[in-house]
Design brief:
By secondary structure, the chain is of the alpha/beta class. Helix content is about 35%, strand content about 25%. Strand 5 and strand 6 form a beta hairpin. Helix 3 crosses helix 4, helix 6 packs antiparallel against helix 7 and helix 7 crosses helix 8. The longest helix has 20 residues.
Length: about 450
């Protein structure tokens, strides 16, 4: 019986957690060791989390017990007679949710916008020299049909390690954007982030300011290509990538012909994170007392980072603040302590220290080229009410009169048509990038950039 059950359990099992309107897929990967013990990992694809280690897996008389100490979660279920279902409960943070697991991986979500070859344009794998720091970036260049030279757009991704397609939650928004714009007559260059995919370079110690050098390397590379109109090379960035694009424009005003800023921040990262945490918690139905408690922890963490330059001392103080903020009276396990210490250490990275204090407005005031600024009305990560007025004011203060700012109704941070804007929706929505938003970008390019070419 035990051997048969072990054979049935080993492998991948998936199910869906349902809490009100929120649905989260969860995938367990069980592996039996030669000595009969078990290890494994769990994925939460809808939250972008994969490979979370299981701290305990036990099989007892047809029942399965799983603990995931790093997220303070556990699952207990019963294997069906036919071995095709494990029916049980997931417990986490004081909540208990029914969870039924089926063998295998969840079906791949439909992505109807994802382009498939053959394409009516030329694609080329390219190497982009980043001469300032002496490493190479890898990317894909698309060249439209027609007579060169072509106007061109260099893409830059949002925060975190991203590949050239900005692949996130099962979507490839930059692949969709590149395909759309190339069919409209624009060359595009999208690159793997430094240290990601085929790109060289150090991502761990890099900051937003360093990324601007990577983007400008892409601009410089395109200007070496005979197929590209050197006078009409612009940039497009999403989220942090939009801030990177603004910095690049400010630092090299003669090099960048235009900028498309998607979900761009206008206020420092500290303010972004306060508002982001508040909006997401409110939409998720979190109690106001907990929202206020989390805000106080954030304020304490940011105060430590701004006051204490020593990373080890800062990380220890942040760890102590996080422990003091916990509500549960139960003592922490070793795994929980390790997880909190890793979180505390992550706050002290060069990127995070820079992000919370960097003021986008100081760079936006120096942007002289034509600018298109777009934000989704349901964006909970970069709130349009918080950021768009500041962006508009900064551009005006700098003397830029050639800009367009639009808040797009019903769109989330990824520019998908959404219901709530919550991150948990991203992977569930089939649309990768809203068609109306794509058309708006291309139309703006036609009206703005093609005019430059007729001068």
């Amino acid at each position: 019986m035990a051997r048969r059950m072990a054979q049935q359990i080993e492998g991948s099992w998936w199910g869906v957690l349902r809490a009100g309107a929120t649905q989260l897929r969860i995938v367990f990967h069980f592996k039996r060791n030669p000595d009969g013990t078990w290890t494994g990992t769990v994925d939460s694809p809808d939250q972008g989390a994969r490979g979370i280690p299981l701290s305990e897996v036990r099989l007892e008389g047809g029942r399965v017990f799983v603990k995931v100490e790093s997220v303070q979660g556990e699952f207990e279920g019963t294997l069906a007679e036919n071995g095709r279902e494990i029916r049980g409960e997931w417990r986490q943070g004081g909540n208990t949710l029914a969870l039924t697991l089926s063998p295998g991986e969840p079906p791949l979500p439909r992505r109807p916008q994802e382009p498939k070859p053959p394409f009516p344009y030329r694609t080329e794998e390219v190497i982009v020299p980043q001469r300032k720091e002496r490493f190479n970036l890898a990317g894909t260049l698309t060249l439209p049909e027609g007579k060169p030279p072509f106007p061109a757009v260099v893409f830059f991704t949002g925060s975190g390690a991203q590949n050239r397609d900005q692949e996130i939650f099962g979507h490839k928004p930059f692949l969709v954007l590149a395909d759309y714009l190339t069919r409209r007559g624009y060359a595009t260059l999208r690159m793997d982030d430094r240290g990601v995919g085929k790109s060289e370079g150090d991502l761990k110690n890099a900051t937003t300011l360093d990324f601007a050098n990577d983007l400008l390397a892409g601009v410089a590379y395109l200007k070496t290509r005979r197929e590209i109109d050197r006078r009409r090379v612009g940039v497009l960035g999403h989220s942090e990538g939009a801030l990177v694009a603004a910095i690049a424009c400010a630092q090299a005003p003669r090099e960048v012909a235009f900028a498309i800023l998607l979900a761009c921040t206008g206020v420092p990262g500290e303010q972004i994170l306060y508002r982001q945490a508040e909006l997401i918690a409110q939409k998720s139905g979190v109690a106001q007392t907990l929202i206020e408690r989390n805000r106080k922890l954030q304020e304490r963490v940011f105060e430590i980072l701004k006051r204490e330059p020593d990373n080890e001392k800062a990380a220890e103080q942040i760890y102590e603040a996080m422990v003091a903020n916990l509500i549960s009276p139960a003592p922490l396990t070793d795994a929980q302590k390790t997880n909190l210490r890793e979180q505390a250490k992550a706050y002290t990275s060069p990127w995070f220290r820079t992000f919370i204090t960097l003021d986008p407005a100081s760079y936006l005031r120096k942007v002289r080229c034509p600018v298109l600024v777009l934000n989704g009305e349901l964006d909970l990560q970069v709130d349009p009410e918080q950021n768009l007025p500041v962006i508009e004011r900064a551009l005006k203060e700098g003397g830029n009169r050639n800009f367009t700012i639009k808040r797009l109704p019903g769109l989330n941070h990824l520019f998908q048509k959404a219901r709530t804007g919550l991150i948990t929706e991203y992977s569930q929505i089939e649309e990768t990038f809203n068609e109306e938003a794509l058309k708006l970008i291309a139309d703006w390019l036609d009206q703005t950039v093609k005019k430059q070419g007729r001068r």
